[in-house]
Amino acid sequence: MIRVILSDFSRVILQVKDKTYKGTLNGLYQELVAKNKTFNFYDYYEFNEELLTFYKKLKRNYSVNIFTLGSIQKNSAEVKKRIRNIFDNVFSSKDLGLNKNDSRSYILIAKKLHKKPEEILFIDDQEENIKAAKKMGLKTVLFENTHMLLSKLKILLDLATPINWLIGVKIYNQSAITSASSFSLPVNPWSAALMILKVNNFGSGHSFFKTSTQSIIGAGLYSSASPKIDKVGLLIVLNSLNNGFLASFKLSR
Questions:
Q1: Average pLDDT in the 182-193 region?
Q2: Helices 49-58 & 146-156, crossing angle to 10 degrees?
Q3: Superfamily covering domain 4-156
């Protein structure tokens, strides 16, 4: 079970406004301080506010921490003010004496947190760091963009919207949802992978879905709102690419 979130800082939580800049965020900060100690921080940097908001919500149930290479989080008043009420600890590879691509750093952090490596979920934008953490048993997510990260985290942390049964879906050419009597989930049908399936069996509170070729593609999908159906019917299982959860539809006849 995941109990700890360990997040990278630079280019995940803190980003540069100039997207063409290829240097380090710490290096840029040092350059700016050397040139002008009173420079406007927000002229050059921006926080990933969507991710910070998500991390703050996670604090209710998880220990949320940072693991970073540099020291901008210590030197910048703007950074210290923004993160102080969100993160429990800020670990620096400089303070640990180990690089982030050194697997030993993750064991050391696990010991400091008094947690097992498998109880820690590590997020970073560098594959070599992800590999080092994974080698020691941490669960990992490679940061590519905020939208993808949040979708993956919701699934890993079991925060995805529960499955619901929506009645009254009209189907044309058995390929697209054109309308529904009601939507209880924020589903965007046009950005989803759509499959029409035959229901093979209904049990109490769960279902097994099989395609026409009888290969099982999903099982044990639970829903407190599932209706009792005593005959074979058609269902659509819609895997929303944008929202990262499954939604099931009973076809209207």
A1: 33
A2: 10
A3: HAD superfamily/HAD-like (3.40.50.1000)
